[in-house]
Prior knowledge:
The complex is a heterotrimer.
Chain A: H1 2-29, H2 33-56, H3 62-90
Helix pairs in contact in A: 1-2, 2-3
Chain B: H1 2-20, H2 24-44, H3 48-82, H4 87-109, H5 119-124, H6 126-129, H7 134-142, H8 144-162, E1 173-174, H9 185-207, H10 215-231, H11 243-267, H12 278-302, E2 305-307
Antiparallel strand pairs in B: 1-2
Helix pairs in contact in B: 1-2, 2-3, 3-10, 3-12, 7-8, 8-11, 8-12, 9-10, 10-12, 11-12
Chain C: H1 9-34, H2 39-63, H3 69-97
Amino acid sequence: MSAALNGLTILAVCAGAFFFLAGTVGLLRFPDTLSRLHALTKADNLGLGLVVLGLLFQAEGLLAALKLISVWLLALLAGATVTQLIAHTARPSGPQA
Amino acid sequence: MAFDIGLALLVLGVGAWTVAARDTFAAVVGFVAYGLLLALLWVRLAAPDVALTEAALGSGLTGGLLVSASTRLRRAETRAVDERQPASLRLAAAVLCTLVSAGVAAIVLLLPEPAPTLAPQAMVNMAATGLGNPVTAVLMAYRAIDTLLETVVLLLALVGIWSLAPDRVWGGVPGPRHQAEPDGLLTFIAQLLVPVGILVGIHIFWVGSVAPGGEFQGATILAAMWILAMMAGLVDAPAVNRRWLRLMLVAGPAVFLTIGLTGFAVAGSFLAYPEPHAKLLILMIEIPVTLSIAATLALLVAGPPERAPGR
Amino acid sequence: MLGSSLKHPAMADFLFAAAGLVLAMVAAGLARILWGPGDADRIMAAQLLGTGGIAALLLLGEATNVPAALDVALTLVLLAAFISVAFVKGATRSEADGA
């Protein structure tokens, strides 16, 4: 049972790390602010979510599991709305020296 | 091992970038990033209480303070960037910083094995305080005088900031009026985040007696949520001449001081707690202190009054 | 409940390595964004560091058996949201004033 949980953890965390990698590559390769923002939110949502999922299988108790899920949901909420705010900032202003 | 080296290099890199950044705003972003990496470092060193304080206070709240400072300074920025200090002054500063870093590194590396520490005695006597977290025992029982003085220092800093108000808005409302768009993004995020944040803040404060946490960290989260509500336009900052506000700010240090003075009568010296009631007294101190610190920190970030008090 | 206190040492090593990987990704992304023109890019750098840092923190806490890392992560995510809003407000306010 514990071996199966460990296996699931490894799978989920690897997938999460892959999405962080993909997000960073997008960040480095995309030409302008708004498309970089797009890559950034993918890393936020999926990378962190998969890492949290993997750690849920290792969680000790209900409170820890709830905290893990809250961290992910709060990061999602903050990331999504702040990204919109940043986009509003990026549009009127051009690159500054 | 590779992880530790990588983390240390990343911390140094971000620190160096922050120092080298030409624009103040960029430097503030670097500073916040640096604080976050430090919190990671503290967790790596198995010091979660310090990590909590660094994340909340050192990085988050101080970052908020620095951002408002940097935006005020933006207009004077171009002139400041053109002035450069003479090379001899910069060289002297670099040499001084290097000497201090080398000195601290030498002290840490030359410590005897095992390093001299009071930790075992702190643990042994913890039962008398009724607490389960040794860090809180140090902050609220063994070295309560330091914590009392910290609360007073924060209050003095706030008085200093209020004194920057021009005469015509003396005692007025800090900060500009933030417009709240009823269906806007910022309102949405604030309405969802603030209640959750308040819950988490209370939790971190409450759990501090048995696990990493405590009043300063909890108060900082509460302060950040209040500032978030103000920035989103959900609430307006209170005028600083309001009596209820001033009572709230003073309540914490006042209760702390009172209980400290009664320690003379009841247990023999300043801030001594009679043993069977130690935990209750600590709790009676912590609750008003948390509220006062939260209000103080929020008002520190809000800044000096900019609008005349209404009514 | 789920999981057990006795961690298989290989699992701890794996989580440790994963934390290191996430941190390396964040560092690479930072290097690009911190030199990016404009305030928006810099705020994004902080956002990336925040999310990646929280992921690394959770993995690190699990790997080194520090349960309080979860509370640190909760605190970080709240303060990260607060500071991001402060940054955006700061950037827009200074533009309105005329930089």
